Amino acid sequence: MSSSDRRGSRAKWIGLGLVILLLVVVAGWWRWPESQVATLRAQGHPVTPEDLERGLGPEAERGRSNALQLMAAVGDLRLDRERDISQRSAPDTLNDQAWAEAVLGGENDGSAKFLVGIEDLTLALATESVAAAIRRDSARAGTALNTAARVGPMVGGGGVLIDFLMGVACERVAIATAETVFSLIPLSDSNYATLQQTFRAVEGTNVLADVLIRDRALGLETFRMSPDQMASSGLAVNSFAPNPGLVNWSVQLYWVLLRGMDQRFYLDQMERLILAARQEGPGRIQGVGAVEERFTQDRLAWAHRVARGQFVTFVSAVAIDSRLLNLLRSAQTACAVERFRLKHQRLPERLEDLVPEFMSTVPLDAVSGQPLKYRIRDKGYVVYGVGEDGEDQGGAEKPRGSPPANASWDHTFVVDR
């Protein structure tokens, strides 16, 4: 065999080896994300909408049942008539089962109407609480306020991200109402103690990590779409296509070459975000910051089109949750401050004065990891944690309307009385 023949034979073997290596790499390319999914399923995490439906079914139904029971337990608490809730004109009490089901969307209606009903219920209870405070009816104001504070967790703890965000909205309404009521009228010690316990229980239902785990299953479903489904939904269209005429070619190329890589990126970043959501204080902030930095410095952004499209809301949810934790803890602390004021006829000089009679310990700031801060003002006081920037602004409240881009504020609970 001549040297040229040997070189040709060697080249063929090298070429065959490269082809085999390429096939192995491609096989691993496709199997890697599927092995990640298999690991998640082995850990008991939902990875398909069907898994999610099986897991959420009992919890969602329990949430509806709890809401109905809560409304019945309120008894003869009449709602303020200024807010128009569908089918609310006939009953005067919250123990009317038919009216309750109508407000919550009915037994067989969709979850969206149920969520709207929950929001309407919270706002109606908040309105009633403030109206009672204006009438100097402290018992009624306290009852309505405590009931409003219990609504959010019923919808926020058992669902996916939309349920969580609706629960947060309801809880923030209750906290803002507590600020107003505390500023209008002193409640009884028992009312403050009950509300303090309710806000503590609400804080204990923090389930953001579980919510992200459930939403991850919905996100995975997008990677199972066919090319036609991706094209019709707009997913992956802008990866390569410089003009509409190349859309189909762009999606087909993404589906064959980039989908597996994009799914791996999605799963890796979701895992980081879930780990961050399970932490508090600087650990959580740093964890979320690492995820955001990974997206900022992503050199393959053009290939991670689907994953990147899903993360804006997820990252925002962690910031929303940190803000809510601070508000809940500040509200609990304000209840303790008011109980101290009832007993001693003055405000405490510092939060440590509340321990151990009115609180077991001063709650920690969910952002800084340090104890919450407290300032006596010319009229009343403010309990607060630092804002998302981690800087202490001295209890500055969030400006109304659209604040300037460079504005900074704290997570505050203000009582002006």
Structural write-up:
- By secondary structure, this protein is mostly helical.
- Among the domains are: 1-44; 49-205, no CATH class.
- The protein is built from twelve helices and three strands.
- It has a three-stranded antiparallel β-sheet with strand order 1-2-3.
- A hairpin with a 4-residue loop joins β1 (373-376) and β2.
- α1 (3-42) crosses α10 and α9 (227-233) crosses α10 (247-277).
- It is elongated.
- Residues 23-31 and 70-110 have low confidence and may be disordered.
Q: Helices and strands in order, then pairings?
A:
Layout: H1 3-42, H2 49-74, H3 97-103, H4 111-134, H5 138-156, H6 161-184, H7 189-203, H8 208-222, H9 227-233, H10 247-277, H11 282-296, H12 305-344, E1 373-376, E2 381-385, E3 411-415
Antiparallel strand pairs: 1-2, 2-3
Radius of gyration: 27 Å
User: Which range does the strand content fall in?
Assistant: under 5%
Distance between the termini: 102 Å
Strand order of the largest sheet: 1-2-3
Helical proportion, percent range: 55-70%
**Which class do the helix and strand fractions yield?**
mainly alpha
Order of helices and strands: HHHHHHHHHHHHEEE
The largest sheet is: 3 strands, antiparallel
Can you count the helices?
Answer: 12
Q: What's the total number of strands?
A: 3
Poorly predicted runs: 23-31, 70-110
- Chain-averaged pLDDT: 77
| Envelope shape | elongated
